[in-house]
Amino acid sequence: MSTDPKLWGTDITSTAVIRQVTDAITTISVPFLRAGLFKFGGRATIAKLSSGGLVVFSPTPLTEEATATVNSLGGQVAYLVAPDLEHHLNLGPWKAAYPDARVIGPSLLYSKRQKQGNEDVRFDLPYTAANKKQLDLPADLAADFDIEFFDGHGAQEVVLLHKPSGTLIQADLLFNLPSHEQFSKAGGNAGSGFWTRLSMHLFTSVVGKSQQRTVWYGFTKDKKSFSDSIKRLDGWEFDRIIPCHGDVIETGGKAIFRRLFSWHLAYADAAAKKA
Hints:
- By secondary structure, the protein is of the alpha/beta class.
- The protein has helices at residues 5-8, 12-15, 64-72, 91-97, 107-116, 139-142, 194-202, 210-219, 223-234, 253-260, 262-274; strands at residues 17-20, 25-30, 33-34, 38-39, 42-48, 54-57, 77-81, 102-106, 125-127, 145-150, 157-162, 167-170, 240-243.
- This is Metallo-beta-lactamase domain-containing protein.
């Protein structure tokens, strides 16, 4: 389990915030410092499928409280989602605890973990640019979720839509800093510190175009593929957005999404007209 105090603080047990967001969705929000400097916050999202199994998106440290939460939801972890190249630090312990869970993530992450000497966790649904349109979801997962793989994103993002509640669940596609909920039990100010204030300027979802520019110029590695994926998400029905970093956008998420990704939507529309 990744419990480095430089990343998670010294007492993640007392600082985690466990909250039922909807009847089917529970979040575990924890303080997390990117590189030990940026107060990004971390969040695992646990969704209960209509079939009764659980989907755990971006697992946070597997504490006793996290285990108790899983047990309170039925205890059957059916899927573990490592949503991009960065969100995998706790994948090994969760897979060891729930060996029957099927693992979803970008294929490049499996290769990265092998090179880094991480636990040898097999990916059951490894996403690539070549297979993302052909990879069929298991029936129980497809009943409640749509999935889009952003191979055009530098971090290789896997994004979920929980269809029954209209909730977009994602890791690094967009941020919503500052991370008030994630640092609410950690003491101090979620927006304090030079590096955190800088990251808040780059990753605010509320005003201006700073995050829009950050994603367009910094995170977008293939504009056509990225924009095509954004266009598909724009066709999804959602109002709530659950990010891994920052507060949950409880309502009005679609409007925020369209503003932050307006350049990508315009790019996709222009490319479609040329085709």
